[in-house]
Every structure is written in structure tokens, then in C-alpha cells.
Amino acid sequence: MPRLDWLDRHMDHCDTLAQWLHQQFHYEFADLPLRDWQRTFAAGQRDGQWQCLIALDGEQLLGSAALAIDDLPQRPELGPWLACVFVAPQARGRGLAERLIEGVCAHARGAGIDKLFLHTHDQQAYYARRGWIALEQFQAWGKPHWLMSRELGAHQWQPLQFRRWLGIWGRCAPLSRRKAAPTGTAPTSGHAPHRWERVTHEASDTVPGTGYAGVRD
Fold first, then answer.
1. Upstream peptide bond of 144 is cis (omega within 30 degrees of 0)
2. Nearest-CA neighbor of 127 among 110, 145, 107, 149?
3. Would you tell me how many other CB atoms lie within 10 Å of the CB of residue 142?
4. How far apart are CA 208 and CA 153, in angstroms?
5. Where is the composition biased (Basic and acidic residues) (predicted)?
6. What is the pLDDT at residue 217?
7. Any idea which architecture 3-177 has in CATH?
8. Which tens digit of pLDDT belongs to each residue from 97-146?
9. 3-state SS class at 176
10. Which residue(s) pair with 56 in the sheet?
């Protein structure tokens, strides 16, 4: 079974994963050259903009999912986010995406985060089957997208633990350096602004920092 680990421990795979994401979500990167995105993505592993959980078979990269501080320029008040979900074609159909997603959710839950958000162009049904709730539909990057959320059931917010584990939000690169600004009407919300910071990971025998063994394929 492929093992899950954090990308910042395997930075030799960072440029490859950034290229996969750039190709898969090309409409989000229309105005950002690949090399610029690769540099920004690598910096994001260090400054906490993204914490990517990756799947490896030996040293072969198979896929990813990330805990992101910000993933939608139109909604800076929302977060944190599930982002960068991708599985290489040869590794699909084995439940790997679900293992990665649940690993990120477990990691966030263990850090005291009680809700995650995501946006998706065409996988709303997939996420709905896994406990994500559709909040609204909106236009971005010339395509319809769904804004979704999932309650994680974290027991309590742990601010002291976060301050010890996390980097300061303001040190993180703004999303505008990563993605082209979406077009279309931005959705509105009554949610109050929040701030999240970077969760670091500690060693474990399963998903590092979570104790999560993964969903069986």
C-alpha cells in the first residue's frame, strides 16, 4: 500500500507535483507561468501557505492533498481549505484520493480545526458522498464552481498549541501570487473573518502528525 507523508520531507518531488497541479487546474493558472508557480509552491511548503500530504510508492510520487490557509481569492474570510487534491492516472481507482483527503482532515482535526472548506469545478458529487456540504455555486476562472464545507468535529480550539506549532498568517504569501484572479460574480457570505496559521507535523507510524491509518482501498 502506498505510504502517506508530508511534501516538505520530500522536496525533490515538489516541482513535479506543482507541474501536475498546474496542468490539472490550468484554468486557475492562466496568467501564472509554470516556473513561477513552482517557486511559489515550494515557498508555500516552508511558509505554511500549503501543507501537502503526498502518497508515495517507494520513491514514486502518486498524489497529494493539502491543508491550505487560503485557496479562493474571492473569499478571504473563509478557511482553512482542502486543496491540491490530485492522484496520478496510473494510481486512480484504488481509494488513494480518499486516504489523502481523510489524512488532511484528521491532521486538521488534531490541530483543533473544526471545519474545512473546498471549491470544486466538477467533483461536487464525489465530495458530497464523503460528508462535504454544498454551500453555494459561483463562477470563477470562467467555470461554475461549488463552495463546500465539512465539519470535522474537533473537540476544542487550541490557541496555545497553535501558536507553538504555527507560523504567523501575515508571513504567508498572498494567494494572488499563485493564481490568476477569478472572473465572474463573487459569492457573498455572512461569515466573520478568521485567521489560521501553519500546523506542523510530528512523527507517527501512519500519517505523520495525525495517527490516521487511512481508509482502506
1. no
2. 149
3. 10
4. 20
5. 194-204
6. 33
7. 3-Layer(aba) Sandwich (3.40)
8. 999 999 999 999 999 999 999 999 999 999 999 999 999 999 888 889 99
9. helix
10. 3, 61
Task: Find out whether 65 and 101 touch, Cβ atoms under 8 Å.
Answer: yes
In this prediction, residue 175 has a pLDDT band, given cuts at 50, 70 and 90, of very low
Q: Output the pLDDT for position 97.
A: 97
What cell was used for 57?
Answer: 510508492
Cell numbers 463546500 correspond to 148
- Residue 62's pLDDT is 98
Q: What is the pLDDT of residue 154?
A: 52
190 grid coordinates: 455572512
Closest CA to 72 of 197, 179, 190, 173: 179
**Stated pTM of the model:** 0.73
CB atoms within 10 A of CB 32: 16
Instruction: Kindly state the cell numbers that stand for 151.
Output: 465539519
Domain boundaries, the chain: 3-177
Lookup result for grid cell 496559521: 197
How would you classify residue 167: left for phi > 0, otherwise alpha for psi between -120 and 50, otherwise beta?
A: beta
